[in-house]
Amino acid sequence: MYDHIFSLYRSKKILGGVKIDKNARTPRTPKRFSKHLMQDILLQNDVVKETLPETEKLSEKSLWSMLYKHQEIILKKENYGKGIGMLKVKVLEEGNYEVHIEDEKKIITQKTELNSYVMNITNGEDYLVQQFVALAKINDSPFDIRVIVQRKFGTNKWIVTGKYAKVSQQDYFKTNLAAGGSVLPVDEAIRLSSVDDNIDISTLLSQIDEVSLEATKQACSTETFKDWLIWGMDVGIENNGKLVFFEANEVPGYKGFKNLPDLTMRKRIRKIKAYNLKMKNKKKG
Ligand SMILES: Nc1ncnc2c1ncn2[C@@H]1O[C@H](COP(=O)(O)OP(=O)(O)O)[C@@H](O)[C@H]1O
Ligand SMILES: [Mg+2]
């Protein structure tokens, strides 16, 4: 199945010995399910809908309407992951624009210049334009949460089997580990962060689980994902405790668990993955 093909791809077995350069600036990644289609699926869920940033397909028109509506927007490539091809655009007080890519910021003064800059960089590829959400920060770096949701083959009981916080590298706005983000236990991250002190952490943690499970339920109600066994959700937190749901990854990375002091979650996740693989192979005969 899909899942299996991706894991073969990752383990390089079908890459014919081609080595993946871990230090390359643009990590290799298989094409992913459409972010836009997933957004439409998730909008059908009342719990998740409340947490989704406003998103549109990128066009000249949506670029400007979203920029003036929100002052700060994110452009992301339609079906890629790992933070690839993301940029942030902000309207500055003087009416100039700031473009932020990786750890570099560039000031653009003319509307026409920004327009051609964006159209050039997105180069006719499918992109989304999304409202920027000011995530809570740790030492000036935004962070969000990777939530792994799994079910055991043959059951319909989805459970959150682990989560960690990913903190962006200095001067980055994206938290992806592939973009140099680092890992912390979730409760510790929240405590260290700019999340208001009067927010109850255990309530927040159960809300994060709830929105992840609702997103799972919604995604798995589709024909494409009805047999799915694992998801990796990206959920952010604003200073006032409001949650923001960034995305549902259908082939989630979970290597961050290795960097936690407690390996319990990693073991649990791998155990269920191994069980599921065994059962799927058994079914195939
Ligand atoms: N609208 C947004 N506002 C603020 N930060 C964002 C926004 N969208 C994405 N990010 C940051 O960038 C990261 C990657 O975005 P995501 O939508 O998960 O794409 P990818 O598939 O490349 O991981 C998120 O985990 C978050 O840290
Ligand atoms: Mg992501």
Q: How many helical stretches?
A: 8
CATH superfamily of the largest domain: ATP-grasp fold, B domain
Question: What does the oligomeric state look like here?
Answer: single chain
Secondary-structure-based class equals alpha+beta
By DSSP, the count of extended strands is 12
Strand content: 15-25%
End-to-end Cα distance: 14 Å
Shape call: globular
Numbering strands along the chain, what is their spatial order in the largest sheet? 1-6-2-3-4-5
- What small molecules does the structure contain? adenosine-5'-diphosphate, magnesium ion
| Radius of gyration computed on alpha carbons | 19 Å
Number of domains: 2
Order of helices and strands: HHHEHEEEEHEEEEEHHEEH
- Report the mean per-residue pLDDT as an integer: 90
CATH architecture label of the largest domain? 2-Layer Sandwich
CATH topology category name of the largest domain: D-amino Acid Aminotransferase, Chain A, domain 1
Q: Identify low-pLDDT runs.
A: 1-27
- Helical percent range? 25-40%
Largest sheet: 6 strands, antiparallel
The CATH class of the largest domain is Alpha Beta
